[in-house]
């Protein structure tokens, strides 16, 4: 009897953690399915060049190395540091993509948790589905890059600002998480500034306006809870900015000292890095900043004609959201944002105002920044816009359902039609989700060449006891990633296997992948290859020769 009693007690305790509401059950089931989908993407889709470069030069070399090296914008420093820590205890796939994998799942959950605060729970679930099936989000979800992590930082920042602005009393941990999310977002991708500034300004406007509306002139300024929150928010933001500056200062010192000691024209040539940093810190920092700014991760566009280029860029960015007309996406998103703006006019103190301000502020804010800069960043920098798009469409659907239901109740007497017609917006979203995830572009390889190269290497079965060579950088990076082999030999003589790109067999080739080659048709010893080796395997991109 005691055993049965204990068993019943355990069952009761476990059942307390299980979802009871249908919407919660749907969310949990969806997250489980998303998890298996992301596991499949991690294992099935071969890393492409940018991922392999990141793994080879930063992640595989440890967290300290990743934290102080920035030879190219390819190093998303915050992501590389976290991944390098993970790589020390796991296999390369988890090391490269593990952080993105975790963030991809967390992002969907945060979308629902934030959304349910301000809209119907089922609409929050719809927002989660819309975010999941966004092509840009799906493409970057588990890549070994910092974009998904940056989106997580954006969502955490939004969540914390909502808590800080709405709650009567805030704990230090609320401000700590807010600052930490911004620091990690900027440390991962400097271009996170496009969401950091609009998000913080939106929260500041909310607190400032409500503070002015409720301000009592007979009381000290800081007695007003909105102004008190605003002061703490500004202080937290300044602390976050200081921490971010310090983290980049380390990188600037490392870059600057490395350039100075290797510059033969410099008076500091040949000195140790530590000596240069201690004796000439300012000169070192300036050199590091100059180098970083000389290679910005944005596309330069002349100010003349910027507007025309901008609208074409915005259309392409929208086209990367869903496999439907970008015009339809823009109209629906704008309608969702207009609903928020209308709510601001009716009642600014409304509990949903801070949420709407953040969505509207980010939608407008990054565009203002782009116009001021006359620069067009790469589309993947704005993967966080998948959040804005999904939330705005969900808000529009909620508004449409409410109004359709009111109209139907007045004009239609059939009970079945009354219940079915308002569900049309939801049916459209569900159809969009199904259409999206079954689209071939949603499960295509990131890079066909990298995939075929990996397949050829797998057939070659490389190992440390074999003599190997690498004829292009993809081979070199994949050997390190997939087989843990460091190889910088480019001489084919006496090698057990030689993997030759088909374009290396074309005389005078200088096409798309030429910049990856260590050897060309003119430099390869074809007499030796054709007489001493034979073709062992071949695919669309490569021919594998065996000795």
Give a structural overview.
This protein is mainly alpha-helical and 547 residues long. The chain is built from 23 helices and five strands. The strands form two sheets. A three-stranded antiparallel sheet has the order 3-5-4. Strands 1-2 form a two-stranded antiparallel sheet. Strand 4 and strand 5 (542-546) form a beta hairpin. The mean pLDDT is 88.
Question: Brief description of this entry?
Answer:
With 547 residues, the chain is mainly α. 65% of the residues lie in helices and 4% in strands.
Please describe the structure with a list of short key phrases separated by commas or semicolons.
547 residues, mainly alpha, 3-stranded antiparallel β-sheet, 23 helices
Helix content: 55-70%
Radius of gyration: 27 Å
Q: Helix count, per DSSP?
A: 23
Distance between the termini: 73 Å
- Overall mean confidence score, pLDDT: 88
| Strand order in the largest sheet | 3-5-4
- The poorly predicted ranges are none
Q: Helix and strand succession?
A: HHHHHHHHHHHHHHEHHHEHHHHHEHEE
**Structural class based on helices, strands and sheet pairing:** mainly alpha
Largest sheet: 3 strands, antiparallel
Question: What is the overall silhouette?
Answer: globular
Strand content: under 5%
User: In total, how many beta strands?
Assistant: 5
